[in-house]
Design brief:
With 143 residues, the chain is mainly alpha-helical. The chain contains five helices and no strands. Helix content is 77%, strand content 0%. Helix 1 runs antiparallel to helix 4 and helix 2 runs antiparallel to helix 3. Bound molecules: fe (ii) ion (FE2) (2 copies).
Length: 143
């Protein structure tokens, strides 16, 4: 069974972001667990939580990139938009007709997506956000 482990090489050093990434990783691992059990009702709930949390995390991350003046904000937002479309699209299909979704393929997509996005995209804003820790402190409880 696939499992993604959190490792320090994934950390951005921005607590609010690292916490979100750990939660997302936990939800993805739950998709793997339930996929093995083949319990459609349980999987629907987890996919719903995952789709919601992905959305919440992306919004939070985009606000932080914006207030810190990250130069590649628009490109990063575009990557988020594409992932949101895939995750929410698959979730909607799964809700109406679970048999249409190849859960193994979806798991492989998720296993690859999060670590790759963190390393290739999120680590790109790391220095900008770390240089603006005071701004992040001011908003982190409200975003
Ligand atoms: Fe991101
Ligand atoms: Fe992220």
């Amino acid at each position: 069974m696939i499992k993604i482990e959190w490792d320090d090489y994934l950390a951005t050093g921005i607590d609010v972001i690292d916490m979100d990434h750990k939660i997302l990783l936990g939800l993805i691992n739950q998709v793997f667990d339930v996929g093995v059990e083949k319990d459609d009702a349980k999987l629907t709930l987890i996919l719903e939580s995952l789709a919601d949390y992905v959305d919440e995390h992306f919004k939070r991350e985009e606000i932080l990139m914006q207030i810190c003046g990250y130069k590649n904000l628009e490109e990063h937002k575009e990557k988020h938009r594409k992932i949101t479309e895939t995750v929410q699209g698959l979730f909607k299909i799964y809700q109406t007709n679970p048999a249409l979704v190849n859960i193994d393929g979806f798991q492989t997509f998720l296993a690859d997506w999060l670590p790759t996005h963190i390393l290739n995209e999120d680590h790109g804003y790391k220095d900008t956000l770390l240089a603006n820790r005071d701004l992040i402190e001011m908003v982190k409880d409200r975003i």
